């Protein structure tokens, strides 16, 4: 890479390791079900001494920059959304990861919230609409909070969003949750809400890249190359 993302260049000034080592460790951490100890051992086998706490620090510093860059290159999603929330443990307590996919299974957006209520659901919808435009239809389960949030949004719109409540139509998002939970399981919970938000953003980032949601200008980049290109 000849020119680094300026935000990433500022972060790297304090990290004192080669860029390829940092990006490789961060990618492996969010792409595969590996613990920090696994990554420490894998680097040692390659003759690179990297403590597990260092890898964690790299991830916290680097992932927000890569996620922001990705959002500028994310493909547009469809206007029929399937929305649901899943449980994530933070410091021994359950928090709520709100997520949606379109009917093709592409990730619309995600948001970690401390509570599962109307306010949290509304904040999720507002963020998703701001980032992806308004949907024509949103399918949810029987959650009263999600329905109340959509009703409140529709009350402010000339053209309301069509709401469908059907658990079986939401199988696609429930299946998609599994890819995220599979990756978080080896992490054994998160230390705090901020770390959880950043690392989940990185996991979602790699999940979207794996689903082909990054504009690549027709060049057949691998998943690794797509992530690394966000650093330029």
Automatic annotation (TrEMBL):
Signal peptide: none annotated. The keyword Cell inner membrane does not apply. Keywords: DNA recombination, DNA-binding, Transposition. Residues 79-213 form the DDE domain. It holds the Pfam family DDE_Tnp_IS240. InterPro entries: DDE_dom, IS_Transposase, RNaseH-like_sf, Transpos_IS6. The keyword DNA-binding applies. SUPFAM superfamilies: Ribonuclease H-like. PANTHER family: BLL1675 PROTEIN. This is IS6 family transposase. It comes from Paraburkholderia solitsugae.
């Amino acid at each position: 890479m000849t020119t680094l993302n300026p935000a990433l260049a500022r972060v790297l000034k304090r990290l004192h390791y080669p860029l390829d080592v940092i990006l490789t460790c961060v990618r492996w951490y969010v792409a595969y079900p590996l613990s920090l100890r696994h990554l420490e051992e894998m680097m040692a086998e390659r003759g690179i001494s990297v403590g597990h706490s260092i890898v964690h620090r790299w991830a916290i510093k680097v992932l927000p920059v890569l996620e922001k860059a990705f959002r500028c290159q994310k493909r547009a999603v469809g206007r029929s959304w399937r929305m649901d929330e899943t449980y994530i443990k933070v410091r021994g307590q359950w928090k709520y990861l709100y997520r949606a996919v379109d009917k093709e299974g592409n990730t619309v957006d995600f948001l970690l919230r401390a509570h599962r209520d109307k306010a949290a659901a509304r904040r999720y919808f507002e963020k998703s609409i701001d980032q992806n435009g308004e949907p024509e239809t949103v399918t949810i389960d029987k959650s009263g909070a999600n329905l109340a949030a959509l009703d409140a949004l529709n009350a402010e719109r000339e053209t309301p969003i069509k709401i469908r409540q059907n658990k079986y139509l939401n199988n696609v998002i429930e299946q998609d949750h599994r890819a995220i939970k599979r990756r978080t399981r080896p992490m054994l919970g998160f230390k705090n809400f901020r770390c959880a938000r950043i690392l989940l953003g990185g996991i979602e980032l790699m999940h979207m890249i794996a689903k082909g949601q990054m504009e690549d200008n027709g060049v057949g980049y691998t998943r690794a190359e797509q992530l690394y290109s966000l650093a330029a």
